[in-house]
Here is the input.
Amino acid sequence: MNSLINKNHKNKIYKLENILKKLSEPVRKAGNKDLHQTLVDLISRIHDPFMFVVVGEVKAGKSSFINALLDTGEEICKTAASPVTDVIQQILYGEKSEVIVINDYLIRRYEPVEILKDIAVVDTPGTNTVIKHHQEITERFIPVADLAVFVFEAKNPYRQSAWDFFDYIQKEWHKKIVFVLQQKDLLSEEDLRENINGLIKFAKQKGSENPLVFAVSAKDEIEGRHEQSNFSAFRDYIKTHVTGGKGSKLKIRNYINSSEKIIEILFKGTEERKKQLEQDKDFRKETNEILEKQYQKSIQKVEILVENSLAVYNSVTQNAYDELSSGLSIPALFKRSFTAFLGKKKSLKVWLQNLASEMEKELSSGLKNKLDIYIGDISDSVQQMVYLIDLKIRKSDISLKNNPDFFKSAAEKRLTVYRELKETFSNFISASENFSEDKLFPYRGNIAPKVTAGSGLAVIGVLLTAFTQGAVLDITGGVITGIGLIFAGTAAGLHRKKIMKNFKKEINKGKIKLEKELTEKLTAYINGIKEKINANFSEFDKLIESEEKFLNDFIEELSEIKKQLDDLK
Here is the structure.
């Protein structure tokens, strides 16, 4: 039966080992050195004998307790009047006595002691020791421990540092804990009973459901007073709970608990990174909202400019149309011909030329006045679009606290991308070429010196003014040229209806061109700036995308490992 139990436990240990190895990858990605070391220790010791770690304050009697438990007649763990355990000592079974120094703070000792075939013992420095590295190395053994033995002085089981360490073991790693009151020979039965009850009560307050306490005397045990020492009770506990396959069962549970703790720590480690990702996504969402809002405002300004420009165009051309229609009536033509013959009035040809010239002047003047009023609004709106994004970038909060123990390289990369975004956008604003478009604005040649002399946002106003002025000259000039061609043959053959029809046709062509030219070019310009602003965020957007993918994959990987652990459990 025991062989079947042991075989079953071995199979589970191998499955657990496989899960721990899978866990290595997310631990590596997290970049936490301590957690990585803990996992390495778990994997390397998973096939070791059942291990319990003896902890407690300096001079609580830990070393004497271990010497008495091993019962070799030798001082395996040094004892003295002053604290002497300045290293961690891992004691294992070996065919002969042998000591291997692992480093300045850890010794591995092999002894041919029967009890060590079932257990491995770790003797630690005091929890209140001031010697550097002891606490951290002691904590390295806790995650891989199968049982924690808390040794207290029987006279005073309430030392603060020991109970602080208890919190670490109990709450952080959920380890099985037993309590030992050492040096019971120094107390009366009544005082000992009182301290046992006090320890049990205190342990329960600290979260231990059924505290198990052994009151022992290492001195009595070593000096042969075995019945008085009460070590038999502790040895019976080992036989009952450790030997005969029971230890491997407890070991599996402990390893599962430790694995779950590592997974829990990793999940917590991702929380800060998830917060950072959400903050970055919110920041990007806000910049897009600002950009879209200002873009729509700018487009509305263009619509207002076009609407008012067309109103001027319609008014001037309608007046010209009415004057032409009136002037080409039969009575008007007869009167003009007669008075022209007498030399009292200009000829029809001269009158038509004057009509075209006056219309050109009124059209050019009226459009320029309207454009001067409204182009400033467009320029301000486009500048505001750029300015508000710049302000958002410069004021953005990248001070979200990073956890230095997790994903340090990712946090550093994030900080670098933020800084580069600020620098890139600052350079973008200061470069005038980012706001001038040769292909869109062929009219800017005459103001090239002003554009090159300016920089950044200042160029926008200069460029838009130059464009609208050039567009007015081009469109009005084209309309007048077309009308001039109509008027050229009027003296040769007067066809009023045809002239009016062609005049209206040329006027409509000019109107369409004016609306199209202003709308398309200005909209394209605003679109271009919007796209350029967005282009500054390309690396930032890649960061968000890669972060989201990493976290999703990481959490999925971790969840799958947890599921395997739950199945084993």
Remarks:
- Strands lie at 50-55, 88-93, 98-103, 106-111, 119-123, 147-153, 177-182, 213-215.
